[in-house]
């Protein structure tokens, strides 16, 4: 792990340099993704079959997974898996239930009624990654907020393996209450959800993490459908003082580094001694890590310890990074909450390890990356709702307000707007 003495602007510049270095690859991916989306739009299921054969090496008789297969998967997994996932489900439900909003109506003056209707989206598509690892936890995190919002149709897509869809993912889909499951992954799955094919009806919003190709596809179909966010590599920032335990920090940094070779595992500290100890611990712990090759590549490319001059400067660095996951391993962690402006999810204290958020605690693990925590939030119930305003005026109420409406419309040069109000009083 590299050590850099820096401030907020220096840290921000380093991250910008990393993004710039990947630009050429991203441009090539965008061209390929655009071509694939266009092909799915034009050829429908024919394109889906061709891409599934090309990328997954499979010829599927159909894409939709039968309910009998889902039930069989649920019956085949270990009881301990069901117990653990249902524990997570209870926590995720209890947390997200508190995010629910209600419609409202008010009467600010005689003859005036205003209000807001909150309605769930009609159909949501959930992408669940396959690839180097299967993530049943992502099923719960994406589906449960949509269910709480009242979405009537939830369609899940996930890449098939040689023996079909991962049974743990199917079991999670049954527990979460997914309505439709499709053995379909990659760009073609995103295109199918956005535009629809003979086998896959279109949805209104697509959520869920994926690789760079999936993220690029979501970006390109945005506007045809809504999306949750454009996700980049996994990130963790640990801010720590000299009292923190380097073994804990190293383990937490590696918990994100093992996701992908592009993952960012960063330490922000005032203590060079701690940074050196954490670096040594990472090397020790890598030896016994099954996904050591992936984690080591991520640490070698991006693992960095930022040495700050003070804790105040350390939190300024954190806000400049705006990380997906932020662990606060400093004495009196709660006291520093007011200093945190930008972070997807915050973990306070030595025993609030980031994997708690990935699996069990309840807050969502679908979080903004690449600095977008400056303006994005983690996935939540609001993401699956839309809001419509309504207004009602009596003639008497409009008479009180008409002159100001007419004046403002005229000032903007929109005479038809003004006339629409004035015409209602012409007979007088």
TrEMBL record:
<dbReference type="GO" id="GO:0000105">
    <property type="term" value="P:L-histidine biosynthetic process"/>
</dbReference>
<feature type="binding site">
    <location>
        <position position="256"/>
    </location>
    <ligand>
        <name>substrate</name>
    </ligand>
</feature>
<keyword id="KW-0028">Amino-acid biosynthesis</keyword>
<protein>
    <recommendedName>
        <fullName>Histidinol dehydrogenase</fullName>
        <ecNumber>1.1.1.23</ecNumber>
    </recommendedName>
</protein>
<feature type="binding site">
    <location>
        <position position="211"/>
    </location>
    <ligand>
        <name>NAD(+)</name>
    </ligand>
</feature>
<feature type="binding site">
    <location>
        <position position="417"/>
    </location>
    <ligand>
        <name>substrate</name>
    </ligand>
</feature>
<keyword id="KW-0560">Oxidoreductase</keyword>
<feature type="binding site">
    <location>
        <position position="417"/>
    </location>
    <ligand>
        <name>Zn(2+)</name>
    </ligand>
</feature>
<dbReference type="GO" id="GO:0005829">
    <property type="term" value="C:cytosol"/>
</dbReference>
<feature type="binding site">
    <location>
        <position position="358"/>
    </location>
    <ligand>
        <name>Zn(2+)</name>
    </ligand>
</feature>
<dbReference type="GO" id="GO:0051287">
    <property type="term" value="F:NAD binding"/>
</dbReference>
<dbReference type="Pfam" id="PF00815">
    <property type="entry name" value="Histidinol_dh"/>
</dbReference>
<feature type="active site" description="Proton acceptor">
    <location>
        <position position="324"/>
    </location>
</feature>
<feature type="binding site">
    <location>
        <position position="358"/>
    </location>
    <ligand>
        <name>substrate</name>
    </ligand>
</feature>
<dbReference type="GO" id="GO:0008270">
    <property type="term" value="F:zinc ion binding"/>
</dbReference>
<feature type="binding site">
    <location>
        <position position="259"/>
    </location>
    <ligand>
        <name>substrate</name>
    </ligand>
</feature>
<feature type="binding site">
    <location>
        <position position="234"/>
    </location>
    <ligand>
        <name>substrate</name>
    </ligand>
</feature>
<keyword id="KW-0479">Metal-binding</keyword>
<comment type="similarity">
    <text>Belongs to the histidinol dehydrogenase family.</text>
</comment>
<dbReference type="InterPro" id="IPR001692">
    <property type="entry name" value="Histidinol_DH_CS"/>
</dbReference>
<dbReference type="InterPro" id="IPR012131">
    <property type="entry name" value="Hstdl_DH"/>
</dbReference>
<keyword id="KW-0520">NAD</keyword>
<feature type="binding site">
    <location>
        <position position="256"/>
    </location>
    <ligand>
        <name>Zn(2+)</name>
    </ligand>
</feature>
<feature type="binding site">
    <location>
        <position position="127"/>
    </location>
    <ligand>
        <name>NAD(+)</name>
    </ligand>
</feature>
<feature type="active site" description="Proton acceptor">
    <location>
        <position position="325"/>
    </location>
</feature>
<feature type="binding site">
    <location>
        <position position="325"/>
    </location>
    <ligand>
        <name>substrate</name>
    </ligand>
</feature>
<feature type="binding site">
    <location>
        <position position="259"/>
    </location>
    <ligand>
        <name>Zn(2+)</name>
    </ligand>
</feature>
<comment type="function">
    <text>Catalyzes the sequential NAD-dependent oxidations of L-histidinol to L-histidinaldehyde and then to L-histidine.</text>
</comment>
<dbReference type="InterPro" id="IPR022695">
    <property type="entry name" value="Histidinol_DH_monofunct"/>
</dbReference>
<comment type="pathway">
    <text>Amino-acid biosynthesis; L-histidine biosynthesis; L-histidine from 5-phospho-alpha-D-ribose 1-diphosphate: step 9/9.</text>
</comment>
<feature type="binding site">
    <location>
        <position position="188"/>
    </location>
    <ligand>
        <name>NAD(+)</name>
    </ligand>
</feature>
<feature type="binding site">
    <location>
        <position position="412"/>
    </location>
    <ligand>
        <name>substrate</name>
    </ligand>
</feature>
<keyword id="KW-0368">Histidine biosynthesis</keyword>
<dbReference type="InterPro" id="IPR016161">
    <property type="entry name" value="Ald_DH/histidinol_DH"/>
</dbReference>
<keyword id="KW-0862">Zinc</keyword>
<dbReference type="GO" id="GO:0004399">
    <property type="term" value="F:histidinol dehydrogenase activity"/>
</dbReference>
């Amino acid at each position: 792990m590299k050590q850099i003495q820096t401030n907020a602007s220096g840290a921000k510049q380093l991250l910008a340099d990393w993004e710039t270095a990947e630009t050429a690859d991203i441009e090539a991916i965008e061209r390929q993704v655009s071509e694939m989306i266009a092909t799915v739009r034009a050829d429908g299921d024919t394109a889906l079959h061709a891409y599934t054969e090309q990328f997954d090496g499979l010829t599927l008789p159909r894409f939709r997974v039968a309910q009998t297969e889902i039930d069989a998967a649920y019956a085949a997994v270990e009881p301990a898996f069901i117990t653990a996932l249902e524990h997570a489900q209870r926590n995720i439900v209890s947390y997200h239930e508190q995010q629910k909003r209600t419609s409202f109506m008010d009467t600010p003056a005689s003859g005036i009624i205003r209000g807001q209707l909150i309605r769930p989206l009609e159909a949501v598509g959930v992408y669940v990654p396959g690839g180097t690892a299967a993530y049943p936890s992502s099923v719960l995190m994406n589906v449960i907020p949509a269910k709480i919002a009242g979405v009537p149709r939830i369609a899940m897509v996930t890449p098939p393996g040689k023996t079909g869809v991962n049974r743990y993912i199917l079991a999670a889909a049954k527990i979460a209450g997914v309505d439709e499951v499709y053995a379909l992954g990659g760009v073609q799955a995103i295109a199918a959800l956005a535009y629809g094919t003979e086998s896959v009806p279109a949805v209104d919003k697509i959520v869920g993490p994926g690789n760079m190709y999936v993220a690029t596809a979501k970006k390109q179909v945005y506007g045809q459908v809504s999306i949750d966010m454009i996700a980049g590599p996994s990130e963790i920032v640990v801010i720590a003082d000299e009292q923190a335990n380097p073994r804990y920090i190293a383990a937490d940094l590696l918990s994100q580094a093992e996701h992908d070779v592009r993952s960012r595992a960063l330490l922000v500290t005032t203590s060079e001694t701690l940074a050196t100890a954490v670096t040594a611990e990472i090397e020790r712990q890598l030896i016994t890590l099954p996904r050591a090759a992936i984690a080591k590549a991520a640490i070698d490319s991006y693992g960095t310890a930022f040495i700050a001059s003070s804790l105040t400067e350390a939190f300024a660095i954190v806000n400049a990074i705006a990380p997906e996951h932020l662990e606060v391993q400093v004495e009196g962690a709660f006291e520093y909450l007011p200093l945190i402006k930008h972070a997807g999810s915050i973990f306070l204290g030595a025993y609030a390890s980031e994997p708690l958020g990935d699996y069990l605690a309840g807050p969502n693990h679908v979080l903004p990356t690449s600095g977008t925590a400056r303006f994005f939030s983690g996935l939540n119930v609001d993401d699956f709702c839309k809001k419509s305003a309504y207004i009602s005026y009596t003639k008497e109420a409009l008479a009180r307000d008409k002159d100001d409406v007419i004046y403002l419309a005229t000032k903007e040069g929109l005479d038809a707007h003004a006339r629409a109000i004035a015409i209602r009083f012409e007979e007088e």
